């Protein structure tokens, strides 16, 4: 399984608008995406009001690529969030057995 860590920093002043997008669009989308085993959304905190994140566990690399395309190392974003986001990062890990 693949662990995918997606982090976003919003543009200044766009926190509330991105928060609505995050809760109303992004979380429901991730929760219904085929190939995702687990989704842990991270909403902004008082000490970091512009930062949001997703930790996703994907069944396998093929499932991830089916959602984002062959270039899975580039952050996949919804066009609606582009004007709200200052920066984004993506990291991938093999899920370790516990």
UniProtKB/TrEMBL annotation:
InterPro entries on file: ABM_dom, Dimeric_a/b-barrel
Pfam annotation, one family: ABM
- Which residue ranges does the record assign to the ABM domain? 1-71
The name under which this protein is listed is: ABM domain-containing protein
- Biological classification of the source: Bacteria, Pseudomonadati, Pseudomonadota, Alphaproteobacteria, Rhodobacterales
